[in-house]
Each structure stands twice: as structure tokens, then as C-alpha cells.
Prior knowledge:
It contains 6 helices and 2 strands, in the order E-H-H-H-E-H-H-H.
Amino acid sequence: GPTESWPTLLLVRDGRDTLVSFAHYNKRFANAPGDFDTILERAIVKARNWGKFYEKWLSYDPLRIIRFEDLMQGDTVAELEWAITDLTGENVCAKTQDPLPEFSAYQQQNPAFFRRGIVGAWKDE
């Protein structure tokens, strides 16, 4: 498996959006008992140790962090290409023939799993 010396690209997301997304996932796919608010409350309680998860990843070197929000609001391909090139020292994206698909392509393939992908959606859910 991966070790702390492997080049690592860590995708992070606003925790509020992550928790809402996770609650929807549990409601739809894990058949979690209870209504959405109950499932969300359980997710919030479990997330109290989330900092330990990030602490472990922050020990990896080399490490590059990409924010989900930056990917969704900017030039996704350019962001990923920069991070991978910076991390590995070579432009692996330039070697591929196929462009990276947009979020909408994933959403069309599996709309139940790729729900919205909207930054700040926690505010209206």
C-alpha cells in the first residue's frame, strides 16, 4: 500500500458540504435508518475525529493538497495538471490523449451517486 514517501495528491472539501453529501450517500446507498436530519446528526458526531485523518495525510511527503472548491470553480484540468506536475516533476497529463471529463459527464453516468457537486450546497439542505 501507499507509504508516507509516495507522492500524494490529497483532495479536500469543505467539511459542511462533505457531511451533507455523506448523509445523502448513507440515506441512498447504505440504507441508514432514520430521516435525513438524524443521519446527518450521526455523521456530525462521527466527524469529530476527522482531524486525525488529516493529520495522518499531512505526514506524507511529498504532498499536494487540492481543494474541491477550487476544482469546481476554476479550470479543473489546469489545477490537476499543475498539482501532478509539481508533485511528480513531470507533466503526465500532457502524455494522455483523452481529456479529463467534466463533472456533468460523471453525473450523467450515475446521477444517484454524483448528486450535485455544488460548492456551499450545505447552506440550502
